[in-house]
Specification:
By secondary structure, the protein is mainly alpha-helical. It has five helices and no strands.
Length: about 160
């Protein structure tokens, strides 16, 4: 498989996580989410879409940089697999938080996601410094999202 094909597939896979999440998010934002008490630092809803599209692009490029290495290599295969697992948790957060309307469940998922991102990023750094760096904005955003999720959970008990 050519590198350009791997790059395209990597980006599409990551963007699909966002598409899956959006099915659960779009309906809940103007209804259930609007009724929740939110902290003063809650960004406007329109900001999340562009940020996630950009983050999924960076994640896709990072995944490509790992995938283009020898996938038969134990470290590369482990990093690739871990990335896919964290991506499942990424999409799961929207399903739990918005789809199931569970701020507590979302908090549990996002904490697990944060840990998986950190481990993935560290594994990526060992294989490609650039791939690891491309994961930093994602980790920072999920850190912010975790604080936001916790705040929403706390305010709505």
């Amino acid at each position: 498989m050519s590198n350009i094909t791997k790059l395209i597939i990597s980006i599409v896979i990551c963007q699909l996580a966002g598409v899956i999440g959006s099915f659960f998010t779009m309906e809940a934002i103007p209804t259930w989410y609007q009724t929740l008490a939110k902290p003063s630092f809650n960004p406007p809803s329109w900001l999340f879409g562009p940020v996630w599209i950009f983050l999924y692009l960076l994640m896709g490029i990072a995944l490509f940089l790992i995938w283009k290495e020898d996938i038969k290599n134990k470290e590369v295969k482990s990093a690739f697999t871990l990335f896919m697992i964290q991506l499942v948790f990424n999409a799961s957060w929207s399903i739990v938080f918005f789809g199931m309307r569970s701020t507590a469940g979302g908090l549990i998922v996002i904490i697990i996601l944060w840990i998986l991102i950190l481990i993935t990023m560290l594994k990526f750094f060992k294989i490609s410094r650039t791939a690891g760096m491309l994961m930093v904005p994602y980790l920072l955003w999920v850190t912010f999202a975790s604080i936001l999720n916790y705040s929403i959970f706390s305010l709505n008990q």
